[in-house]
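Notebook entry, structure prediction.
Reason for the run: the old model in the group folder had no record of what sequence produced it. Starting over properly, with the input documented here first.
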Amino acid sequence: HFGRTVFALCNYPALLTAGILQLEELQDSPLEDFPADSALARVLQREHRVFIELLDSYPGLMDRLTNGEEEDIIYVGEMLGKGASGARGDDTKTLKAAVLEWLVPRGQAVIPPLSRNIKSDQGFNHEVTGALLCPAGLDWLNAETKQSLKSGETAVRGDQWPIFLYSGYVYDSEDPWKGLLRSEILVFGFKHVFTSPSSVDKEPKATRSGNAYLHGMKSVTKGSLAYIATQAHSVSLSSSSVFSRTDTVTDSENFYHSILDLLEDPDESEEVCDLMMCRVFPNSSSSQRSVSKNSALSKIRERRAALRERTIADVH
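New structure, fully documented this time:
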């Protein structure tokens, strides 16, 4: 679950080893000593944050790392990596089939048909998936552009985001934040992985088997958005069959990092905060639950509000 919601492309043995060393070094040179806008500071801050969140996710991990030998750290890292890779593979397997059902409106057929087991027909080699993967700002309907993407003459880098990330698959060059990471495919993919596959077709409903329920996840995270976007981009729609740090077909590592970089950029905090407010999970917080009229709870809150107003009036 850590890989899905915090950081997907970890080299866990290296992360643990560097994290322990960094904890010692930070006692002498805290991160605040580095220029806030330096690339080094950003990298160190992310690595340190990921390491600390990993420690928080696994009680007792810190004691095992600090009291164990170097071989123990490597072993723990390998086991964590194996678990994360397995979970990522499970998501890839189910999403590859599910996404094909979301490419066109319900009741319509994908033409020409796509096979769930033949990836070579997807990506820029198919009219529908090609249109969705076309980088925002390019025109898939332009014959020259389409042919250039199909042939590979136009190499698409990971930070050239595809149109399918946008709501309605529409990109506004004057307002590039508009609709970003709000597309139907991403929303469906998020529900499929974190609540349950059945929640895609109906209002979210907590299930005891959903990943979010099992891990106490109650809100969208920056890592989870980047994770679902990369799953859809690098495996479900493209002609690639893997989502990994070594995937060069879709440049998935660069794609994942570029989205995470944007979401973690302090200068974009207002837009990111608005994006994080998307309600995907049922009963995600008590403040979002409405109170039934004339219930005991509503009466208690009404009485408390009246007492508060009376106290304020008496003071003035």
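Summary: The first helix runs from residue 2 to 5.
The old model has been moved to the deprecated folder.
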